[in-house]
Amino acid sequence: MKPRYHSEGDSFFIDNYNHAPPFSNFFPALAGVTGKPMWVFYTNRGQGIASFGVNNKDGAMMEFLPANKAYQATPILGFRTFIRPQAGKAGLFEPFSMGSKGQQTMVVRPYELELRERDAEHGLEFTAVTFGVPTENCPVLGRSLTIKNISARPQSFSFADGMPRVVPMGMNDYLVKNMTRTIEAFAEVTNLKSQVPFFKLKIEPSDRPEIRWLESGFFSFGTLNGEDVPVVVDPAVLFGHDTSLVFPSNFAERGLPGNQKQQISNIMPSSFFCGAVTIKPKQSVTITSYYGYGQNVAEAAAFAARVRAEAPYFSAKREEMRRIYVDLVEHMGLETSNPTLDQYARVTFMDNVLRGGLPVAF
To answer: Do 8 and 96 form a contact (C-beta atoms < 8 A)?
Structure first.
């Protein structure tokens, strides 16, 4: 399948992006005047997001890898979505993957990344949107997965959507790449009963006589139709003995894990949101999920409670992020006969602002 490229306004489209020459980029660190951005690295492989975190690569929630390794790892260690129709194991499939037969499109915008896949064989259409949540006290990455039934009959299936591997807070880049097995003994996941898991090391892994307990950590949570979505933090629950994390054999054979006991310490955890839905023809469902950093469990829980209480939170923040970009680039008034040149100039202006700053009147 040959890739095709075209642009519309501030959107750049790559059809068949998994088969296009690889490229990589960072999200702009925009979060509004009072917000705290996450750094986000993406490629045109798998579901795009290759790594993200806070401060630098020592604060990665999804392990940072250089571009050539990210092209290999993103389809496995990036965001993943598994669909298990009622037919069970024989019908399990993964949208946005390299092996998918659906029509795939990546839409790159200066303020978000959108992926689309139309799978005529299974009668489903998928849209994934990812952006940095602006004007919040904690850095957060927002993500939505919309599944639409494009067939003429109702569709019933189970889903698992999320991250196969989470790097707990405190596990720096050196430890991840050189001492992962050893440092797993320090890892723990707390607050799981509230469906807002908190990922961190128990103590600071330093060569000093005193012990320093870690309070800060990463968190995640998901919603569907205003309800919490159960989260799986133990990768073995879905992948079984497939330590390569390529195929979720347990999920394929047994379906949803239910109340299965999960290991919550001494592992490299996952963050998969699981559920079951029935979608009527031309109808859709949207799973929204959030991945962020909090100073403590209380801050993460308070943020989750506020988001859950505001039904239009995701769409409102997505529009706010777009508005922040538009308001910023409107400071430069360039309009030519070439729309592509206009968009290039706006993005270049934004890049210069991020490097040099923009005066703000108080």
So the answer is: no
Residue 88 predicted with pLDDT over 80? no
Sequential DSSP letters for 272-315:
EEEEEEEE-TT-EEEEEEEEEEESSHHHHHHHHHHHHH-TTHHH
Q: How many Å apart are CA 305 and CA 308, to the nearest integer?
A: 5
CA 276 to the chain's CA centroid: 20
Residue 44 DSSP class = S
Alpha-carbon span 311 to 92, nearest angstrom: 31
What is the SS3 assignment for 41? Answer: strand
pLDDT at 89: 47
Helices and strands: H and E segment counts in the chain: 8, 19
Lowest mean pLDDT among 41-50, 99-108, 259-268, 333-342: 333-342
Q: For the stretch 147-174, what's the b/e string if a residue is b when 16 or more beta carbons lie within 10 angstroms of its beta carbon? A: bbbbeeeebebbbbbbbbbbbbbbbbbe
Exposed, middle or buried, 237 (CB in 10 Å: 0-12/13-18/19+)?
buried
pLDDT of residue 211: 86
Q: What is the spatial distance between Cα 19 and Cα 1, in angstroms, rounded to a whole number?
A: 7
Please choose, from the candidates 119, 124, 42, the residue with its C-alpha nearest in 3D space to the C-alpha of residue 75: 42
**Distance from C-alpha of 250 to C-alpha of 253, rounded to nearest angstrom:** 5
């000093």: which residue's tokens?
Answer: 208
Whether the per-residue pLDDT at 87 is higher than 80: the answer is no
**Distance, CA of 348 to CA of 327 (rounded, Å):** 15
pLDDT digits (tens, 9 = 90+) for 39-54: 999 999 999 999 999 9
